[in-house]
Amino acid sequence: MENINILVEKELRDILKKYDYPRSAILPMLHFIQKKYGSISKKDVEIIADLIGINPTEIESVLSFYSMFNTGSSAKYIIYACSNISCEFKGAGEIITFLENRLHIKVGQTTGDGKFALRTVECLAACSHSPVIQINDIYYEHMTIEKMEKIISEMEK
Amino acid sequence: MDEKIILKYTDIPEQKNIDTYIKNGGYKALQRALSEYKPDEIIHLVDKSGLRGRGGAGFPTGKKWSFIPQNIPLPKYLVCNTDEGEPGTFKDREIIEGDPHLVIEGIAISSYAIGAHKAYIYIRGEFAKGAEILTRAINQAKEKGFIGENILGLGFDFDIDVYRGAGAYICGEETALLDSIEGKRAMPRLKPPHPVAKGLYSSPTVINNVETLANVPRIIENSAEWFAGIGTPHSTGTKIFCISGDVNNPGVYEVPMGTPLKELLEMAGGIKDGKKLKAFFPGGPSTPILTSAHLNVGMDFESLKKIGSMLGSGAIIVLDEDRSIIKTVARLTEFYRNESCGKCSPCREGTDWLLKVYQRIIDNKGKKEDIDLLLNICEDIYGTTFCPLGDAATMPVISSIKYFRKEYEEYINGKCSNINN
Ligand SMILES: Cc1cc2nc3c(=O)[nH]c(=O)nc-3n(C[C@H](O)[C@H](O)[C@H](O)COP(=O)(O)O)c2cc1C
Ligand code: SF4
Ligand code: FES
């Protein structure tokens, strides 16, 4: 465990070195932690604050401003369903209802086994391929209920 | 007629690779810029081309660059705005994923012109793939000596960093973007000072949109006159329009500025299911909605302004005859409510009130007075907010009531025929 922390700290230090202004390393560090652990813990925030030399509440304040960062427990697959109008016109609403029924959760919730979380998001800048779903880092375009079912059952395995 | 300037090669998958890019004439403009022109000559050239910003406001690019003070001992920065968050807009993603080196070359030339040795590509957090493609392209460009110290042996030192956002539409606003890079909550700054005087880390900074910067190598390659000869006298060059909504072939369409909307709709395969056009946003929801009466409008800065709208980001969102104006505008109002950064109360509270009134109307509890109430709230927001997001939130509301007041009245009276769409 200790070793892992030392390694992570080294990588965080490398990120910090890239920037002439230490605070500019905050977002890249948060991205790094989230990619590695899926979410950002209080402890992570303290480590980052320490490295940058500011109060942890300042990191919290930045962290909470952005919608992409997860704190607390995180699902293995976070499903972001675009619900802005170009996707809505092409049936995003039906896909979202399907997902709610299929996963037995409402938008904003996580399944009991921690596997899936469902969120709606604003335009993902892929409207010509609508409806668009993002799962973790990947875009799935021209979504249909059939395609969605296939993806979910694949991920359930 | 092949009028494509920016999307000329984006359909070729290998275009992402530097060798293909170079084979197709890439990085010649950078070589030429550094060896044949002084920085101020490039600014002059871009000014003469008439290039105007493609990020929304249409500010003349050469003019913006000329505001960068040259005789002060501060570093200068260039920031490429890749936050692309205006609903219906997806052109910048196409450009960076399809032809990343074109953007990098544009950034390099523009940085040379303003005397910046460091550039940031600020890319929205969701574009993980785009960030990866750009990072790979930057590494290739470094290996070939197009980025780094003493580029091409021509004495210019230059570096680019890809900086990822993390989900906040407001980061597209240029001063909020700067705060984001500075590791703060991304809230717009008071202007003046403008970023050209006091921008990133309090240094002179130029912020330009991806599409704007991608035009720069083409201007160097061809000429300012060539560029100025495309489009209309005050909106030169081509524009990439993002067509989405109720059309048969949604997508990006690059055409000369001034192309009539009608032609663009035809290029996009016409309205879906043989239906009729009801309304469209010409440049994203932040631009006033227009109707089928405006089919012949030329898609350029002046023509749209003349009829009370704007070119915005070039996101044409199409609504067919059966679409509910009220539900559409309600959803957009929710967007602005969600994305308001909360810094000033007219925007923070106003967008929330607007949404509450829309919600009431949609729930069939609307009152006749609600239409004027919506307009009154807009009046309180418009012109009173810290950044243009507040004004933008009023655009779909005011314009939709202007053209579709009857539909609002019918909806409220429970007589609307397309209440379910
Ligand atoms: C709320 C808001 C969001 C914006 N989002 C973007 C954006 O995503 N991309 C962009 O290039 N410009 C955006 N802009 C405009 C920028 O503030 C700025 O004007 C632009 O990047 C300048 O580049 P240009 O001169 O090349 O157009 C936004 C403005 C506002 C008020
Ligand atoms: S207008 Fe809205 S987004 Fe802009 S600063 Fe005010 S609260 Fe923030
Ligand atoms: S509206 Fe869904 S990607 Fe743009």
Layout of secondary structure:
The complex is a heterodimer of chains A (157) and B (421).
Chain A: H1 2-17, H2 26-37, H3 42-52, H4 56-65, E1 77-82, H5 85-89, H6 92-103, E2 116-121, E3 133-135, E4 138-140, H7 145-156
Parallel strand pairs in A: 1-2
Antiparallel strand pairs in A: 1-3, 3-4
Helix pairs in contact in A: 1-2, 1-3, 2-3, 3-4
Chain B: H1 18-23, H2 28-36, H3 39-49, H4 61-66, E1 77-82, H5 91-98, H6 100-114, E2 118-123, H7 128-143, E3 148-151, E4 156-164, H8 174-181, E5 205-209, H9 210-221, H10 224-228, E6 238-245, E7 251-256, H11 261-267, E8 277-281, E9 290-291, H12 301-306, E10 315-320, H13 325-339, H14 345-362, H15 370-381, H16 388-412
FE2/S2 (inorganic) cluster binds next to helix 5 of chain A.
First CA to last CA of chain B: what distance? 39 Å
CATH architecture assignment name of the largest domain in chain A = 3-Layer(aba) Sandwich
* Helix content percent band of chain A: 40-55%
The mean pLDDT of chain B is 96
Radius of gyration of chain B: 22 Å
Q: What's the CATH H-level superfamily name of the largest domain in chain A?
A: Glutaredoxin
Alpha-carbon distance between the two ends of chain A: 29 Å
Can you summarize this structure?
Chain A is of the alpha+beta class and 157 residues long. Helices cover 50% and strands 11% of the residues of chain A.
What does this entry look like structurally?
The complex is a heterodimer of chains A (157) and B (421). Chain A is an alpha+beta fold. Chain A has seven helices and four strands. Chain A has two domains: 60 residues, Arc Repressor Mutant, subunit A (Orthogonal Bundle); 80 residues, Glutaredoxin (3-Layer(aba) Sandwich), CATH 3.40.30.10. In chain A, strand 3 and strand 4 form a beta hairpin. The two termini of chain A are 29 Å apart. The mean pLDDT of chain A is 94. Chain B is an alpha/beta fold and 421 residues long. Chain B has 16 helices and ten strands. Chain B has a five-stranded mixed β-sheet with strand order 3-4-2-1-5. In chain B, strands 7-6-10-8-9 form a five-stranded mixed β-sheet, sandwiched between helices. In chain B, helix 2 runs parallel beside helix 6, helix 13 packs antiparallel against helix 14 and helix 14 runs antiparallel to helix 15. Iron/sulfur cluster (SF4) binds next to helix 14 and helix 16 of chain B.
